[in-house]
Amino acid sequence: MSILEYSSPTSFFLNVDHFNCMTTSIEIYFCKDCNFSTEWTILFKKHAKRHKNPSNEDCTTIQKYICEKCGFKTHFSLVWLKHSQNCSKNKKTWYKCDQCKNQYRYETGLRRHKASKHSIHEIIWYECENCPYKAKEKRYLKRHINSHHFDDQNMELFRCMLCSYKAKFNSTLSSHVMTRHLTKQNIKWHECQKCPYKTKRSSNLKQHINSRHLDGQDIKWYECDTCSYKAKQKRCLKSHIITHHLDERDIKWYECQKCPYKAKLKTTLRDHAIARHLDEENIRWYECDKCSFKTKAKSNLKQHVNARHLDEKDIKWYECKECPYKAKQRANLRSHVKARHLNKLN
């Protein structure tokens, strides 16, 4: 297995699926000639060159690149350039679909949307030779094969320079660096216009809006072909199918390397590993900023905040269709329906 070191700052703001980093320690570089320090090797090397030039009076100052539209600051010219190209305050043109309410920043996105959702021509599917997976675009099939069917021993992996994390895709590593190692002033936050929610990923903001703020008629539901289940997110439908409807022979099991445990979903195995096998010093705790509660799972923190600290007006209630019962968590509503109304519904 070969390892590639990642060093391209231009990919910091790509938004893709990610994995948890198993350490929070960051190496700090200290200058032996002055009190300058930094976590970035590229900045440290840049600073060291300043000592060789006697004309530099203040060697502890490093140039910052500032966005004129929103005030975003960075030490990297390429990060500044990438940010400037995508700064929401600098973007005026949106490409709107003439057949639905979708809109895109780039014309290529609109073309893909129309070809996928509104084309009158028969869809050309790209099918995987190893499993039932199929995709409308060749790039998605390629990514699927690399993720699920490529032998890790023959694959070049991208390694994080700040911790032991490594990834199959450069873009996945970029997301890891952005979420785990960027300082707060260098993070580009994606903020909801209707509530205080903010996130480091535009994809998370989109999911939040779909889940919390869209009217029922505007939601695009992903429906199961086998039962009445439907979801607002495609990945949730995929997890449902794998968990409830996939034939045992077609399931790709994710096995724990430290015990006999195995899971149908990679995320379930990851949660198991964090809960059961991670050393105490390597656990990343998710802490509540309003009380002493902390947890190993981000989803548990979200449930805690919703249950304990959210204002009544901000709570999204899950209401039972058969009685006045309502719950703050969908799982509680499901348990209620099974316990109280399942016989009636059947």
Automatic annotation (TrEMBL):
A GO molecular function held by the record: zinc ion binding
InterPro entries linked to this entry: Znf_C2H2_sf (IPR036236), Znf_C2H2_type (IPR013087)
PROSITE patterns, per database record: ZINC_FINGER_C2H2_1, ZINC_FINGER_C2H2_2
Keywords, sorted A to Z: Metal-binding, Repeat, Zinc, Zinc-finger
Keyword presence, Zinc-finger: yes
Keyword Zinc included in the entry's annotation: yes
Domain (C2H2-type) ranges: 95-123, 222-250, 286-314, 318-346
PANTHER family linked: C2H2-TYPE DOMAIN-CONTAINING PROTEIN, KRAB AND ZINC FINGER DOMAIN-CONTAINING
Protein name: C2H2-type domain-containing protein
Organism from which the protein derives: Zophobas morio
